Amino acid sequence: RKEFVDLYVNYVFNESIRKPFEDFMQGFLRGCPARKWKMFLPAELQVVLQGHTKFDWHLLEKNVTYRQYKKLDRTIRNFWTVFHKLPEEKKKMFLAFVSGSDQIPGYGVEHFKFSIADPQAENPDELYPFANTCNHILFLPR
Fold it and tell me: Is Acyltransferase set as a keyword in this record (predicted)?
């Protein structure tokens, strides 16, 4: 029985996927030559490909620039008060809303910047917050 289980597990996890994996690897290496990736340790490569998964949210707050707002405006202070009370998953959802990804790129949170801008609407109560993900701008009505 043990030999059967070992052979079956080997088939399912190794043999049955060998051809699709080789095809994937060939395509991947065509776009990302292996010699360029060998300089990274596995953990470093994961950060390069996936981005950072742990965040210093207060550092993120320090890196924000404001357009038509000042750091001490009531809207901004209220925003950050509410933001820091959010659970981690909601903060990541916010990050995805602003940047298009719930992860910080490999260069690190200390270099990740986004802006909060006032859309200067005539009636801000009728406008929802919206974002420009390409430029990392959150448009936050007063």
Answer: no
Whether residue 70 sits in one domain with residue 38? no
Are both 46 and 62 inside the same structural domain?
A: no
Total H helices, total E strands in the chain: 7, 4
- Quote the number of domains for the chain: 2
Active-site residue, 134 included: yes
Q: Are residues 26 and 65 in the same domain?
A: no
Q: Could you read off the pLDDT of 17-52 as tens digits, one per residue?
A: 999 999 988 888 887 777 777 777 877 777 777 666
Q: Are 116 and 140 in contact (CB under 8 A)?
A: yes
Selecting among 34, 39, 41, 134, the annotated active-site residue is 134
Shared domain check, 46 and 81:
no
The answer to whether residues 110 and 63 touch, using CB atoms and an 8 Å cutoff, is yes
